[in-house]
Amino acid sequence: MDSIWLGGAEWLAVLRIGLGLWWLESWRHKDRKAWFERGTGINWAAGIAAKHRWNAVRSGFEVMVAPRPRTMAYVVVYAELAIGLGLVAGFLTPIALVGGLLLNVLYFTLMIHEVAEQGQNSMMALMSVVGLFGMSWQVWSLDAAVGWFG
Fold it and tell me: Which DSSP string do the residues of 38-63 spell out, in sequence order?
């Protein structure tokens, strides 16, 4: 594959690192005190889920998230941090990419009727797919240094 400046594997690493920085920014801008103590993020999501036109989203939220809002707030916030760190460092990269893809699909599904973040979640999901199938951990990663994931 011909490209300017970097080779294909390096450009995929740039994409992976950029996606990781995006996840880290998502984690950084959250008011964690509000998320953990006042439940702002989960309360916001509960309002969206309650009005969702898909019954599966409403019932899934009621079964999985509503009974444990504080735990789910920690899961969401620290999943974003773990995904970001994993992608930037290239550590357990395929797992981080799949985790990020699942989180973006979850966010996208929950907010399918909200136009605010559909573009962000679809772009991040696309980057995860490209990073995963392009094996973006081949260079500039701890995975490559250790020899994981061939």
Answer: I-HHHHHHHHHHHT-S-HHHHHHHHH
